[in-house]
Amino acid sequence: MQMDAKFCMACGHELETRDVDGTMRRACTSCSFVHWGNYSIGVGALVVKEDKILLVRRAQEPGKGKWTNPGGYIEQMEAIQDTIQREVLEECGVQAIVKNVVALRDQPRSIHNLYVAFEMEYVSGEPVPDHVEVDAAGFFTLQELESMDVASFTQWLVDVAFHGRSEGLRLDLSPVVPLAGYGLFRV
Ligand SMILES: [Zn+2]
């Protein structure tokens, strides 16, 4: 059961229910805001160095004690590739840069979540946990992972990282037409 939004998140005026392109939606009585739904977007890093993958151990619920790849949630005004690079650095002190989008996870639920996984290139730094979000960090081989408590979804991503058969969507820093303000990833 989803609560109807009552007030506009853009201007604070009351919302009404009205037909927007054939679907009844909550929309503002004063500005152009439409409440499309509740969404969140997660980002994850797959950093492989010399056949080892960078994992962190979660220090917080949910999943406390489980090993996962570094990641987080996107911010309103930050480019998605900057967010994941910052998250990796903050969580475990490793500098890595975004190469490709290699996996997506769609999870329709009360807050519909989309998770974007990036293949990233290791630049520098030895893994050191931040002791806030994570309490251990390191690069591990597939064999080492077998005896670790790795989250199920992370196991799926590790398989993508080691056995993916495509390079995925490449970050396009010089698009063929100028598209200011877009983050562009393409085949
Ligand atoms: Zn409004």
From TrEMBL:
InterPro entries: NUDIX_hydrolase-like_dom_sf, NUDIX_hydrolase_CS, NUDIX_hydrolase_dom, Nudix_N. Residues 38-163 form the Nudix hydrolase domain. The keyword Hydrolase applies. Keywords: Hydrolase. Transmembrane segments: none annotated. The keyword Hydrolase applies. SUPFAM superfamilies: Nudix. GO terms for molecular function: hydrolase activity. This is ADP-ribose pyrophosphatase YjhB (NUDIX family). It comes from Paenibacillus endophyticus. The lineage of its organism: Bacteria, Bacillati, Bacillota, Bacilli, Bacillales.
